[in-house]
Specification:
The chain is mainly α. The protein has one domain. Helices cover about 65% and strands about 0% of the residues. The protein has a two-stranded antiparallel ribbon with strand order 1-2. A hairpin with a 2-residue loop joins strand 1 and strand 2. Helix 1 packs across helix 2 and helix 17 crosses helix 18. The longest helix is centred in the N-terminal third of the chain and has 31 residues. The chain is globular.
Length: about 450
C-alpha cells in the first residue's frame, strides 16, 4: 500500500494534474463568455485549445485572435503559464506565498516535476524559478510594447504580455492574426524579443543559475567561465548553439531561391528569417513564414529540429538537446568499441544513456503511431501529416495549415498526441528517478545476441 502511495505521489499526480487542468480549461472555454461573439464553440475545439495551451504546443483549430473574448484569452494565457511552469510548480508557489512548510513528500514531488537529481535546496530552486520567470517575461513584455503599443494602442500592452508569456513558455500562441508572426518576419525587435524569450525558456533553469554562478566567480575570463560550468550546462549550451547555427545555415541554403519564403529578400533579411525558423522549430511554434510554403527539404529538416526540441528543466518540449547528444555520442562510442561514454572529460553514467534511449524510443513511438492513425482519417500529404504529428509530439505548434482542417477524429488524435507528448517523456524520466535498484535480486543469466 505504501508503494502505491509513493507512485501516485509522483508520476500519477503529475499526469492526472495535467489532465484535470485540461478538463477545467475546456469547460471554461466552452462557456459563451469565452468567445468573442458570445456563441459557444464546439466542445471539441474548446478541448483542443485547452490541451494545446496546457501542453504549451500551439496548434489551434480556431483562430485565437478572433475566436476568443478577453476572458477566453485570459483563460488561455493562464493555462499556458501553468503548462510552461508545470502545475506542481504553480501549486508549490502558492504554498510558498502562504508560508506553508514543505513536507518530504512535497519536496519529492517537486524534485520529480523538475527532473532534478537531488532534494537539496529544492525550495530555494523553486523560488528562483518563479522569480526568474516573471522577471524575464516582464522584460519580454516591455520589449514587445515598443512595437505593439504604437501599432495597437492600449491593446498593445495586453498583446505584449500575452506574447511574452507564450514565447517564454514555448507555446507559440498569439492574439494578433491568423498568420502568427508572418507580418513581422522582418521586424528586428519582434524577432529579437521572441528569440530571446524562447531561448531563455528552452535553455533550462539549471543552466541559468549555473551561468550566473560562474559569471560572478570569473567575471572577466569567458573561457574559464565555460570550463567551470557543470556538464549539464556545457551540453545544453553547446547543443543549443550548434543546432541554432546549423538550422540557420540549413534553412538559408534550402530556402535561398524559394520565392514563397525568402527567395526575394536581401541577404541580411534571409539570414534573419532563417535564424527565426531555426529557433522556432525548437518547440517555439511561432511562424515568420508560412510552413506550407517551405521546400520539402526544409520541411524534413524542420521535423528533425522539432523532434529534438529544447533543453531539460525548462519550458521547451521535444526529446531535449542533452538526450539526443548523449544518444549520438554513445552510438559513436559503441562504434569505436568503447565501453564508457565521456563528454568534456566527464564520464556519463550508464543509466543516463539508458534514459536517453528510453525517452527517444517512447517519443518516436508516440509520433509513429499518431502518424499512422492520422493518415487513416485525414486526406492530406504525408509530409503535412508528419509535420502535424511531430509538432504535436514535441509540443512545437507549427503546422502546414493542416490543424484547422482536421475532422473530429483527427482532432482527437492530435489532442491525445499532444497530451502524451507532454507527459509521456516526463513520466518516463520520473520512473527512472524514483525506481530503486535492488542489489540483492537474483539476476537472469547473460547471453550474447547479434545487433545490427
Amino acid at each position: 500500500m505504501k508503494k502505491l502511495k509513493l507512485n501516485i505521489s509522483t508520476t500519477h499526480i503529475i499526469m492526472i494534474s495535467f489532465l484535470i487542468a485540461i478538463m477545467i480549461g475546456s469547460i471554461l472555454l466552452s462557456l459563451p463568455i469565452s468567445t468573442a461573439d458570445g456563441v459557444p464553440v464546439p466542445y471539441i475545439d474548446a478541448l483542443f485549445t485547452a490541451t494545446t495551451s496546457i501542453c504549451v504546443t500551439g496548434l489551434v483549430t480556431v483562430p485565437t485572435f478572433s475566436t476568443w473574448s478577453i476572458f477566453g484569452q485570459i483563460i488561455i494565457l493562464i493555462m499556458i503559464q501553468i503548462g510552461g511552469l508545470g502545475i506542481v510548480t504553480i501549486l508549490s508557489g502558492i504554498l510558498i506565498s502562504l508560508n506553508r512548510r514543505f513536507s518530504l513528500k512535497d519536496r519529492i514531488l517537486m524534485q520529480d516535476a523538475f527532473n532534478l537529481n537531488s532534494l537539496s535546496g529544492i525550495v530555494v530552486f523553486l523560488k528562483k524559478v518563479l522569480i526568474g520567470t516573471f522577471i524575464v517575461e516582464g522584460i519580454g513584455a516591455l520589449l514587445y510594447m515598443t512595437v505593439f503599443v504604437p501599432e495597437y494602442g492600449w491593446k498593445g500592452i495586453w498583446i505584449s504580455v500575452f506574447n511574452a508569456i507564450s514565447a517564454f513558455c514555448n507555446a507559440g500562441i498569439d492574439i494578433m492574426s491568423a498568420d502568427s508572426l508572418c507580418p513581422y518576419a522582418l521586424n528586428p525587435m519582434v524577432n529579437f524579443t521572441t528569440s530571446l524569450m524562447v531561448i531563455m525558456g528552452g535553455i533550462g533553469y539549471v543552466v541559468w543559475w549555473d551561468v550566473i554562478r560562474v559569471s560572478r566567480k570569473f567575471p572577466k575570463n569567458k573561457f574559464r567561465c565555460f570550463s567551470s560550468l557543470s556538464l549539464h550546462s556545457k551540453l545544453a549550451l553547446s547543443a543549443t548553439a550548434v543546432l541554432l547555427a546549423a538550422g540557420t545555415v540549413g534553412f538559408f541554403i534550402f530556402e535561398f531561391n524559394n520565392p514563397l519564403t525568402i527567395g526575394k529578400m536581401s541577404i541580411p533579411d534571409k539570414l534573419q528569417v532563417s535564424f527565426f525558423q531555426s529557433m522556432t522549430t525548437r518547440t517555439a511554434g511561432f511562424a515568420s513564414v508560412p510552413q506550407q510554403d517551405l521546400t520539402n527539404t526544409s520541411a524534413v529538416f524542420s521535423l528533425f529540429l522539432m523532434f529534438i526540441g529544447g533543453s531539460p528543466v525548462g519550458t521547451a518540449g521535444g526529446v531535449k538537446t542533452i538526450t539526443i547528444t548523449v544518444l549520438i555520442f554513445s552510438a559513436l562510442a559503441a562504434i569505436k568499441n568503447k565501453d564508457e561514454l565521456s563528454l568534456f572529460r566527464r564520464r556519463i553514467p550508464r543509466h543516463s544513456v539508458s534514459k536517453a534511449v528510453a525517452v527517444i524510443t517512447v517519443s518516436f513511438m508516440i509520433m509513429f503511431i499518431s502518424t499512422i492513425l492520422l493518415s487513416a482519417v485525414t486526406d492530406a500529404s504525408t509530409i503535412d501529416i508528419a509535420y502535424e504529428t511531430v509538432s504535436a509530439t514535441a509540443t512545437v505548434g507549427l503546422t502546414r495549415d493542416l490543424t484547422p482542417k482536421l475532422n473530429l477524429w483527427g482532432k482527437i488524435i492530435i489532442i491525445v498526441t499532444m497530451y502524451l507528448g507532454r507527459v509521456g517523456p516526463i513520466s518516463l524520466l520520473i520512473a527512472f528517478n524514483t525506481k530503486k535498484n535492488n542489489t540483492n535480486i537474483i539476476k537472469d543469466p547473460e547471453e550474447n545476441i547479434s545487433i545490427g
